[in-house]
Amino acid sequence: MPLKETLNNAHSHWMDGSGPEADIVISSRVRVARNLAQLPFPHLLSPQQAGQVIDAVRAAADSAAVREKAGELTVIRMNELTPVDRQILVEKHLISPDLLEDFERKAVVLREDEVLSVMINEEDHLRLQCLLPGLQLNEAWQLVNALDDGLEATLDYAFDEKLGYLTACPTNVGTGMRASVMLHLPGLVLVNQIRGVLAAISKLGLTVRGLYGEGTEAAGNLFQISNQITLGQAEEDIVAGLISVTRQLLGQERAAREALSRERKEQLADRVGRAYGVLKHACIMSSEEAMRLLSDLRLGINLEMIKNIPASLITELIVLTRPAFLVHAAGRELSPVERDVYRAKLIRRKIAAAQQC
Amino acid sequence: MPLKETLNNAHSHWMDGSGPEADIVISSRVRVARNLAQLPFPHLLSPQQAGQVIDAVRAAADSAAVREKAGELTVIRMNELTPVDRQILVEKHLISPDLLEDFERKAVVLREDEVLSVMINEEDHLRLQCLLPGLQLNEAWQLVNALDDGLEATLDYAFDEKLGYLTACPTNVGTGMRASVMLHLPGLVLVNQIRGVLAAISKLGLTVRGLYGEGTEAAGNLFQISNQITLGQAEEDIVAGLISVTRQLLGQERAAREALSRERKEQLADRVGRAYGVLKHACIMSSEEAMRLLSDLRLGINLEMIKNIPASLITELIVLTRPAFLVHAAGRELSPVERDVYRAKLIRRKIAAAQQC
């Protein structure tokens, strides 16, 4: 049973720090939107029809075609989970916050390594997701494509010869695909070039967000870059375009880091050292401060200024110190003050444990 | 030769963290002003007469009476020292900044452990000082008194039967004595009671200053309390009065620390932990920040939250990270930025060395 594992462990394969360009590219994600031909889009579904969608996907997920192409999957209805457990799935980026609204009619499909997941009855009947560490957009696309093929062997998708896959929101019509990369860009932030770089990206038809969705500032210098256009471009072209832009950003971020190492060596060492010292010894820490200091520490690890902490621990800590994970780890509700105390303690312990390995 | 030792080593006996009440009382000091009967006060001395004073004190310091009562002393003319070395004597509290002005006509007498010193041709011909760790005002007074007796066997002091010892400034006439204690009062600062407490002290005829003289704010929560009145009170009464006030302050500071430990435990642990982490890992540190963090760390050591650093190291670091000591340790002039880098490095090294013992 993968679920218990998922909830007790902050770690997902996407956080393990592997994959190409992992010093800057935290993760690569491909999501596709699919809908069943015979039923209204989710916002118009009756509870009974919503159940039909879930049952249809459950049957498809259990099919030999899916098992062969994508491995073993587990379907979990959202109402089987506690509110905290539902929130944890959001914090691990396995589902979107939208899946928490009207959750009685919604479900999630998970592979044990959490690389593949499917949201059922979110904005569309199905949203297939593949999430991998590092720059692996092609690999993510291939895995999503394999799962998609497996499901389509059973399910009848809403598809139009001219438009492509039909979706609840017209902005997803066509390929129904969103590809994205999560980048850690502290260098560009520190040399004050991030604004210009991101403005240029927007002009290429790409969208930039923070780690936790549209509303959040780019806390921890983590930026998600994704395609805006789904219509009129083949999936492979969308992926290739995003990879190309990502490679440009990698070059710019590395140049910024080199300039910092060369011209502001002491300031950089001071920043990294202070982050390390405070994370190791503070007893009260807000979410915002944790994100900021973990970003500084990650930069220090990548620049080999800090050597006995793996970069993957930073990604894990960013997820692990989100509110729902803290409540889950504590085993009870926490006041905001208690949360800050618990967060600091968890960070101290995890760093100490990593250093004893 | 004690001088080289003095300059290469920040450590003086007064910093060693011994003595009663050493958790709060850093040091106790007694100073007396004396003048030679046959010569004008220092500001009216010709260079030749200034040399006569130095020669007279040198002869007295070498006398059997002084050796027997106060031990072996070395006389050093200020113009034998480099500007940095002169500044170091100020930073170690062995001489006042005034001894640096017109230094060609001035000198200092030092005992090897730096417990006893005499400034020659500062405001008065002689200013005898005893500086001891912890609350040892009576002991300091007895040592100064013994040195004074030894010197008086050779020297002819300016003394008036009615007024007592005559001094250049009338505020010192009488006993010519200033007794002071240096207190670390972070608890009273944190519970916001320090203002009220110090206001009450001023009404008792006592003066409050920061660690480095009148002009400085009480950096590092270090407060020097001294008597204002020298006339009409016996030396023993001045000392007893200051001890009594100090004991009251000790009670108030301890009550504040207990209240903090009880009611703001996490905040206190956070404050101490952050100070420790930043001091151990920062690479750039201003003098002000160092004082603030060292104060927090000292409180943590006294409250046994930090166990592998002796409190005496904190006092030593406060002295060692003053500008002149840094220049001396670096062996060359330092820009303000370099000084902050050097200060941080020195603190990191000293703490690491203490923890390896």
Intertermini distance of chain A = 28 Å
Strand order of the largest sheet of chain A: 2-3-4-5-1-8-10-9
Average pLDDT of chain A, to the nearest integer? 91
Q: Which CATH first-tier class of the largest domain in chain A would you pick?
A: Alpha Beta
Structural category of chain A? alpha+beta
What's the shape of chain A?
A: globular
Largest sheet of chain A: 8 strands, antiparallel
Total count of helical runs of at least 4 residues of chain A: 13
CATH topology of the largest domain in chain A: Creatine Kinase, Chain A, domain 2
Total domains of chain A: 2
Radius of gyration of chain A, whole Å:
21 Å
**Helical content class of chain A:** 40-55%
Write down the oligomeric state: homodimer
The SSE order of chain A reads HEHHEHEEEHEEEHHEEHHHHHH
Secondary structure tally: strands of chain A:
10
CATH superfamily placement of the largest domain in chain A: Glutamine synthetase/guanido kinase, catalytic domain
Largest interface, and how many residues on either side? A-B, 17 and 17 residues
